[in-house]
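Lab channel / #folding
Pinned by the channel admin:
"Please post every new chain as: sequence first, then the structure tokens as a reply. Keep commentary short and put observations after the output so the thread stays searchable."

First post following the new format, from NK:
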Amino acid sequence: MPASRSVDLLAVLTLAACTATPAGDDSGDAGTAAESTGATTRPSDATSDEPGETGEPTTSDPTADPTDDPAAVTYHAHVRPILARTCEHCHVSGGIAPLALDSYADAKIFSALIASQTAARIMPPYPADNSGACNSFRDARWLSDEDIATLAAWHDGGALEGDPATPPPSVPPLPTLTGDVRTVAMPVSYTPDANMPDDYRCFVVDNPATGTGDSFITGFDVHPGDPRIVHHVVVFAPDSDDAVAQAEAKDAADDGPGYECFGTAQVSAEIAAAWAPGGGAQRFPDDTGVKIKTGGKLVLQVHYNTLAAPGAPDLTAVDLEIATSGITAAEFVPLADTGLNLPPGQSSAPTSMTTTLANYGYSGLYTVHGVFPHMHLLGRTLSLTASHDGSDICLIDVPRWDFHWQFLYFYDAPGVISSDTPLTLDCDFDTTTRDTQTQWGEGTGDEMCVAGLWVSKQN
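Reply from TO:
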């Protein structure tokens, strides 16, 4: 496959004047190599056989004085600022994360885990590549290579505390909504099934848009009732009255509040919001929004992880930013490989499909603002490329798919494609746990290979 380029270069398909280069963090080729091999970027004299390398608590000489070595990496001077910036929206007491990192005593115990998880880019959770090799994305949870090397050096050096009198770093505030903000909430509290580590539940709620004319959801902010168990939330906008009726029928037929809904809302609906812990409020980019039917219904999907607090009830609410003017209607075009037929017992079961927006009923030029990749539990990798003049232009690369961390990825630099641009979607699956074929479907045992492009029509 030809070398990939960033999505802002998609403008060459239609805009000859495009000269922008991808904006990214300060990682370079070394970071890409470290990510692809799982290697840790460390000082040249670091070794990989330090105590605690496999996750056991780190021990160090309590009498050692780190100030004796001005080059020593310490928690208060070097590590805590990184953790505060990228981890402490989740890794605090009472948060969704299973361990807190906002004190030296807590963080020291897990120094090996911090080093290994960040080196493999498992944490902070961000499955897509944000290095710039295939785009960079707005509000990315992405550590620089320097950050990763610092965390590794701290562990290798004995997880030193440093000066506890060092002023604590500030935790950056999360984004907030502005303008007309209205709230939707679960109608009643729901206690997830403790026998299901992952309980997916959908609730039919009233659409908060009122009045006449078009309304748009332009942003959202989720308020989990119990942040220990709310793992992600998706708001779906049903695309017809029939879809609403189907959702209400599912609700009525299922015991207890809401209805079971692994993966999707189980009815024809568009994604209007997708949230995971630690992200704060999110606004759709470039004055775009999801058009919603005034006075209709929405479906609120909540994914509960019950391991942290089995038997805990939840009452989650979502703030929606609503606008009625000055908004460009955008939508997710779900590029989907519905012909999946995965053989069992394979550590790598790749699939590929090539399509165009024209195949989904679109014509003309479209601005591509972002992408929403989606697979199920067997998914391992996903990539989407656009073809132009014999080259592949990378739209997104997901080298570490994780079903439990699904994000909307909005580009730092949106691009433009035409409806006849060939788009190739590649997915890879691990079917070693299956003894029969796995096909496309919405059930837990089924699979999907989807890339939803967030697009708006060019005038």
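NK: The radius of gyration is 23 Å.
TO: also worth noting, Residues 331-457 form a domain with the Jelly Rolls fold (CATH 2.60.120.230).
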